[in-house]
Design brief:
By secondary structure, this protein is of the alpha/beta class. The chain is built from 20 helices and 37 strands.
Amino acid sequence: MAEEEYDYTKVPMTGSVEGIAKDAPEDSPRIGVYVCHCGINIKMVIDVPDLVKYAATLPNVALAQHYIFTCSDPGQNLIKEDLKAGKINRVIVAACSPRMHEPTFRGTVVSEGLNPFFFEMANIREHCSWVHGDYPKEATQKAKDLIRSAVARSALLELIAEKKVDVTPETLVIGSGVTGLYAALDIANSGYKVHLVEKSPSIGGHVAQLDRTFPNLDKATSILTPRMIDVGAHPNIDLMTYSEVENIEGYVGNYKATVKRKSRYVNVKCTGCGACAEACPVKDVPSEFDESLSNRTAIYLPFPNAVPPIYTVDPENCSLFKEGKCGDATLDAVKEGKAVPPCMAACKPNAIDFGMTEQQEELDIGTIIVATGYDIIDPTVSPEYKYGVYPNVITGLEFERLSAASGPTGGKIVINGKEPENVVFISCVGSRNKQTGYEHCSRVCCMYLAKQAHMTKEKLPDAKVTVCYQDVRAFGKGDEEFYGNIKIEGVGYRRGLPAELYKKPGSDKVVVRAEDTLLGEPYEIEADLVVLGVGMKPNEGVWDIVSMLKLSQSVDGFLMEAHPKLRPVDTATDGVFIAGCAASPKDIPDSIAQGKAAASGSLVYLVQGTATIEPAISQINAEVCIGCGSCAEVCPYGALELDEVSLVMTVNEAMCKGCGGCNAVCPSGAATMKHFRDRQIYSQIDALL
């Protein structure tokens, strides 16, 4: 049926038809319509020559052309030549989604001196050929309707001037994991000031907890520690550890951030000698860095290579704050200088100061990079694995601390006081599971379990190691070869996730009950140690940042980029970038790459010193506005406020993002949207109907 109506194989690569408005006066709309084949994506369904002939008959159309790839250089040159010759003063491209190539074609028309808002795009790929592939006649008719609608709107488009604002040459980086470190270093090395905010006492993030990295089995400290030292010593980096961002206001180039710097009760005189920790009587606080597998004191350094190497007093566990007394010293007496607790007595540099208070710091910044990282999914969302019930069921991150030389066992894999003989690893714990609420794949779990299986065989060569998996996703460079080598080493892989774990009566062993879905038979394994490959979820601290910056989130809760392919680290808020696991689960190389990409995007603003603000924004007609404030109530960006003198609403053009909420609720019709005027939208509707 399709071949009888339209044979797309006979469509020439290009063609042109003069429109009825070719001799229209210079000051009237003369529209050029350019239909793209998109290779065969559009032309194999839509009758392109017929569509071009139809477009040429529409009011105000001076010419219509088609080309195999309009987004290519030759395709763009067709538009440029017609603009240069003065044939047209409006441009419509009928092709793919505006999200894909609207910026491309706006750049094309701007290069020939045409205002970018005299460009319009009609989506005849996603809206026509892709969804109506079995109905070419109907798809062609729908494409005609969309082009007719676009032509009606184009005739009413207005010239809109773009505005620029100055950019403060400083950047705020939120989060100091491996992503934030590399982003901060790139900007600082380019000569610009960076404020690096980290809520923990030390920088480094989760990578600092790891023993090795896959697939090359490099020591994590060899990758991270040099960068941590570089950041700590860099003159252009204002390192704000043990701090939190409390508020962010403003717009691209002119953000104002309020950062709360919590008190360590230890000042910069600290030499990191550790005498205070040795003297501290509170020694049973679970270590966050060691995933509670060891204890720390109430005054502590998170880990030996921490940056900055300054001890921190934990007020929730310190006796002075918790009970008001430590030894013979009371808190009031200590603050008055009349008593000295054990830690202060041991501190030779006199670095401990219990009179320190929280400080708030105001920052003027031009751009922001959100690199807040991830948290691991709580393993108890899969209760069948008995995490927290059986002591020999641990998470992958806990295994990293067990196997690390700096860990609680000095790198020895020991559980219940002895080396395990049978170790079982379980993948996809928490993630890829509708019941747990985490349907996404965390990407790295398969490979970090393979790495940990290798580390087990390396340290316990006689141990039997089994990996229970759902699918093995060896996605990264060198990962497939690494996975293959792990199996050669003797690690057993059995497809199918375990149904349950139960304690073997009269023993410390755990029985793993599962079904091998390749063999189609159930089995049970007795294990001394079970390691759960838990997935990633967004860092819980990111919710406040989302609210402050009006960021969007995808279904899985991770931060949403402006475009998954074309703008993977940008957000809908100009000057704000996301990177690393704040955006989605990813491994270390991808996290570093995104951190450097976010730094590059930020540097575009910093180097230029100015930023172009979105001109398609709200506009208030002062003669009609009644100052009711309805628009301000619905504005998610805080861009509208009442002028107390004229009693008319005003728009902060730098903050407005053109969402149109004000236009929708304005009772007097005073709020309208540039580039989306009511008359323009109504003309489109009339043309369709």
